[in-house]
Amino acid sequence: MKQKLTIVKVSGKIVENPETLKLFIKELCALKGNKLVIHSGSNLASRIAERMGVKITTVDSRPVVDDKTLNVLSMVYAGLVNKQLVALLQARKVNAVGVTGADFNLISSVKRGMGGTDMGYTGEVRQVNATFISRLIDEGVTPVLAPLTHDGKGSLLFNETDAMAAEVAKALALRYDVTLIYCFEKKGVLLNVDDPDSVVVELKRTRYKAMRELEIIKDWFVNKLDNAFSAIDHGVSEVIITNPAQLSDYTRGTHIK
């Protein structure tokens, strides 16, 4: 029987708020068994870029990653945010290591565009070193992954975190019984965005398609759910979409199986 592994992708809005971050860490540490964290950084990078005089251009809320933008994202995501998360986990006796995909050759990517737009140093995962990640996990270490990978030619690439989490989950599903959790500010997928309690408890593909056609689900959230279903199609046992307050309670949130 495969060991249980919970992969948690935490959104930048959670990470950049001290109160929600504190709650997230508490609930994350309450999860039993092996864990892996993938984090974003949201508006924090934009604020630091502004102070440094770097203008970040976006397309559909995604950064166009030129040289200067890549420098800022690397400093904020792989440095400040990543090590802050590691320190908070160590304070709760969870032995964690903060890494990027470039470390130990954990994740390699290729450059990707979007709708014909050159997104610069934006990466799409091509290979996950599941063997080395498993070695860390089996030693009782919780990897904390920043959304930066490498292209094998000497360049860092910045990765969209929902897709990166799905690819890591797919690769590790060959070795573990994987649950992938997307942790953000809502209680789950909502039938009505104005009603925070209108959570869809179980989301099947047919219902998801209908909700997309009715534009109940749209924009960036489509990408999150497309990645969730892709993970299920490639061996991940379950995907849960939830918020920090519910993180350690598997019965809550939206479930995709």
Share of helical residues: 25-40%
Write the H/E string, N to C: EHHEHEEHEEEHEEEHEHHEE
Number of strands: 13
Decide which structural class fits the backbone: alpha/beta
Quick check: average pLDDT?
A: 94
Strand order of the largest sheet: 5-8-2-1-11-12-13
* Low-pLDDT sequence parts: none
For the terminal residues, how far apart are their CA atoms? 19 Å
Computed CA radius of gyration, to the nearest angstrom? 17 Å
Write down the CATH topology. Carbamate kinase
**CATH architecture descriptor name:** 3-Layer(aba) Sandwich
Q: Which superfamily, in CATH terms, is the homologous superfamily?
A: Acetylglutamate kinase-like
Q: How many domains, as an integer?
A: 1
- Report the total helices: 8
* Proportion in β-strands: 15-25%
What gross morphology would you assign? globular
Query: For the report, how would you describe the main beta sheet?
Result: 7 strands, mixed
